[in-house]
Specification:
Elements lengths: L1 H6 L4 H19 L5 H15 L3 H11 L2 H10 L1 H22 L1 H31 L15 H5 L9 H7 L2 H30 L3 H8 L1 H19 L4 H21 L5 H25 L10 H30 L1 H21 L5
Helix pairs in contact: 2-3, 2-4, 2-7, 4-5, 4-15, 5-12, 6-7, 6-12, 10-11, 10-14, 10-15, 10-16, 12-13, 12-14, 13-14, 13-16, 14-15, 15-16
Length: 352
């Protein structure tokens, strides 16, 4: 949330470089600490540093690209999450096997440091290339706007965050965004446990089976583009389609519990791919609407924070619910919340 606001007030290229560099330092330090408190502090700083990356990227897309390329880049960048996830699995497994867990953080630090250098050089070249265009096409200069410019009338009136929240429809999408975060990340965390307990498989096998989910999730991002166009570029209407698909898949998961491991994984794939589509619509595309107000990064940061609120709450509440009430009640609660998010999207489809 804080970095979303900051991303609209400072140069996004410099902010991303700072986030990558700080994350590299924190990852390196993690390998030197073994006490809980120090590790928690360092990893918290790492999380904050990495949160300096996403909102400025969406701002760059909004302010440096024409309309069609904005949407293309906002969709295509989802593939970086999938590639990064698999790279993390492979690097972590290989490095840990060779040198132990501390070396994993050193390897991560090396990756981040390298990428910060690549970013600094590469984005600098992009800015210089853009500055060579005709003045009316020069988007690079727009990235240099500081907070004084934004507060002294260069943007529309009514661009305060609370005005955006109430008057521009963000309040209407808050609940669906939280629920999508709950399903996209929180539920995914518990898929291996569900498979292990339901089908009595080895934990390692359950984890291996669920590694296909990130790949299948990528299809959700590209389906989001197709449905978005069918819905005349209306994010909330398109999101309603994917919440409906996830609701149907959860109903299927609820009713066919324990019948087939293949069917179970497929149903989970529909759920998580649908939520990846919702993520693309709300976190990537919806903030582009606020470009003229200079609030692309702010809105992206806010919606991302709301999604991670859903992730954080669901990650530990799912475990508590399963232990106390069982999987049937837990999955039933997912169904109810997802159906409610679908209803909210339908009711407020014209609010934003």
């Amino acid at each position: 949330m804080c970095n979303g606001v900051l991303g609209d007030r400072v140069h996004p290229g410099k902010m991303i470089f700072t986030g990558l560099s700080a994350a590299a330092v924190m990852n390196l330090l993690m390998g030197f600490f073994e006490t809980f408190l120090l590790m928690a502090v360092v990893w918290g700083i790492n999380g904050y540093a990495q949160a300096m990356i996403w909102p400025p990227i969406i701002r760059i897309f909004a302010e440096m690209l024409e309309k069609e390329r904005k949407m293309k880049y906002c969709i295509d960048i989802v593939s970086s999450q999938v590639a990064g996830t698999f790279a993390a699995y492979l690097i972590a497994a290989g490095v840990m096997w060779l040198s132990g867990w501390k070396a994993v953080f050193a390897a991560a630090a090396a990756c981040l440091a390298l990428m910060s250098i690549v970013w600094r050089i590469g984005f600098g070249k992009i800015e210089r290339a853009v500055q060579g265009r005709a003045p009316e096409e020069n988007a690079a200069e727009r990235l240099e706007k500081d907070s004084d410019t934004k507060e002294n009338g260069s943007k529309e009136s009514g661009d305060h965050f609370f005005t955006l929240f109430w008057n521009y429809g963000l309040a209407a999408v808050l609940f669906p965004v939280i629920i999508h975060g709950m399903l996209k990340d929180g539920v995914t965390t518990w898929v291996p446990t569900y498979i292990t307990e339901t089908f009595a498989t080895a934990p390692a096998f359950s984890i291996l089976v669920t590694t296909v989910l990130p790949l299948l999730n990528l299809t959700g991002a590209y389906l989001a583009r197709a449905v978005y166009r069918k819905c005349r570029e209306h994010e909330v209407q398109a999101a309603a389609v994917f919440f409906a698909a996830a609701t149907a898949a959860l109903l299927g998961l609820w009713t066919v519990k324990g019948v087939s491991i293949v069917l179970t994984v497929l149903l989970f794939a529909v759920i998580t791919a649908s939520m990846m589509a919702v993520n693309t619509l709300f976190i990537n595309l919806l903030p582009l609407r606020f470009e003229t107000m200079g609030k692309v990064s702010t809105v992206s940061g806010f919606l991302n924070a709301a999604a991670y609120l859903g992730t954080a709450v669901s990650t530990f509440t799912i475990g508590i619910m399963v232990e106390a009430l069982g999987w049937n009640v837990t999955i039933g609660s997912w169904f109810v919340f997802t159906a409610a998010a679908f209803a909210v999207c339908v009711i407020f489809r014209r609010r934003i």
